[in-house]
């Protein structure tokens, strides 16, 4: 008996918690509003199912509780009812799945005009690379990594010489332009995660993965790692700054190219050996 | 008027071939230690699983204390935190839940429920337990090696799991992999036994479609485990070789903390495929026995046949088959080919249909029933609430695009704890309260049982329901400390403290259960052979607890399904499976 009351309270409590909870998704800062919409739809459909099933059960528990003299009915099955329930559930599942798959189709279709940048993960920090004047990223491989080439760019690849290297863990992006983020790890699995963007993707050593989004809100956002990568995992942070096109250009022109960084490293080494 | 299809007054042929005989124990050691009796092996399995489960419970307190009071407890550093997360997860999923459902309930209930004298391979069955025990000891021994147990997360993803940035990379990871390999060897021996016993050793009249759903659930889970564990087996073996001999099955060229490693050409994603090829079926290896048991608990204590038995059996089979082709939903953001997303989202959401049908049938069993709110029934009902709640959040995580923002957050942690942590554990408790009288001959204390239920059910729901919302907020899992993070408000830390306080209380409240368990051994009311007035075969043994060989001189003969409750015209509200047919009876 008290279990019937408890179930009603669980349902009411869960709905109240959902409505009153201060813990909600962060304000979205990308084009992926459809993801939020699909999730909202899922909340409605599944929430209705949860409430219906548990309240029906609570009613049964109250109505058919044992009292002296009660005897249960004998009904092994009711195929018509079972078929109907199967059909209704299938329809509900399709209602959830269809929009989900449509949005997934968008998620994996990168716009042609997307600006390509690269995020590189290493235990436990982020660095970034933007294409230079040729608008192309040069090739890379872990075998090129040394103290003056922490991202492992190919020294012989002409496309890579003008690439802009950002070692400061701070990535700037212009608002309103689609970005394809290439993801590369040089040690273990990481995951590029900015909650406000909604999208995230693993970095896998040995392959280059990617995802895309369009920033829609000016501001500063924290980049976290969402794939456990060892004891320093929570400290692996970066900053993503979404700004106007003009501010972005100012920032970009201040960055060092691969060629410049090699030269300045070489001259620093020379000074060090002269002393 | 007599029904021609039911033979009247004709003695059935003997159910047993005379030359079958069991190994009879001659000493205390062979009777209770190196025992070949499935019932003793069951208790050994369950005892070991519960013991190691208590360790996992204590580890969960370490995790919760750190999340609520980061840095405040001196002995919990990042290493200890990640080691606790890893050991808690692996112990609960493999060494506790899998072992207790298949090795514990499977061993105890399969022979009794299908009318067999024992498992078909008693010696192999004994070996299964001892290898499992060794596997468990190897795992726990990692606490005594330099560097301690592995802190790689229970998923053990390379390259991180075998590199120096992860605690336990010296010995812990090796012991973990060796232990898992041993576990699978031990399980395979037991699993073959469960499957063959169900197929070969059923008594006369016990057709497949007259088996209790408990047996169906355990049988399907054992088949799945025999197919899925080899995936984990090769993954562990190859990772062990990568770690010890420097092979490159899963290790690509990489630079670790500035040092170039010799690995070349391996694929970290391949490991994930192998791991989840095991890992997802594993969820159902735990869930299907729970589904079966809960069906029987509800039916017995509601005095009504399970609604839609045939549908329940087919749903178990459909879930078993589908669950072998959904593993990719753990890898939507792993960097695998994104086109897989379409396939795995469709298969994953398709599983919702047979699963939902099972839920409907459990609930419909209550319709026009005669519901007794016994402790086992309360736990079964608690399971329904937590399972429905945890099941529907699976629709978020299975629907590939909705998974993208939620994956790797506390939403996932809340989901799987609700659906495959709390829900199966509630079933385990319900099952223990239900079958304890058969196992010991005494009843457990109902009052203590109910106190235990209320604290555990409401407490567990209060722990994991709010946790979903921290995940929606975006709080990542596997963070030793959140630190200063702009999007996380101070209230999230408060909620974490509340959750931790409840978790500690619910954890300590389990002592009520253990007190009841041991006290009732001696002081429990004598149960008699069939205290719940249940129809299935295990309650019809000549002795309680059942002796070696289960059935005395003669095997029972089965005349009907195990759900003959409140049959019209029957003198009582249940008809045992082995009671001779009533005049004009049409039971399935």
From TrEMBL, chain A:
Is Methyltransferase tagged as a keyword? Answer: no
Reaction equation(s) it catalyzes: 4 Fe(II)-[cytochrome c] + O2 + 8 H(+)(in) = 4 Fe(III)-[cytochrome c] + 2 H2O + 4 H(+)(out)
Q: How does it sit in the membrane?
A: Multi-pass membrane protein
Give the Cytochrome oxidase subunit II copper A binding domain ranges. Answer: 112-254
**EC number(s) per UniProt?**
7.1.1.9
| Residues spanning the membrane | 41-62, 83-105
Keyword list (alphabetical) reads: Copper, Electron transport, Membrane, Metal-binding, Translocase, Transmembrane, Transmembrane helix, Transport
Please list where the region (Disordered) is annotated: 254-275
Query: What does the UniProt entry say about where the protein is found?
Result: Membrane
Keyword presence, Repeat: no
Per the record, the similarity remark reads:
Belongs to the cytochrome c oxidase subunit 2 family.
Name assigned to this protein? cytochrome-c oxidase
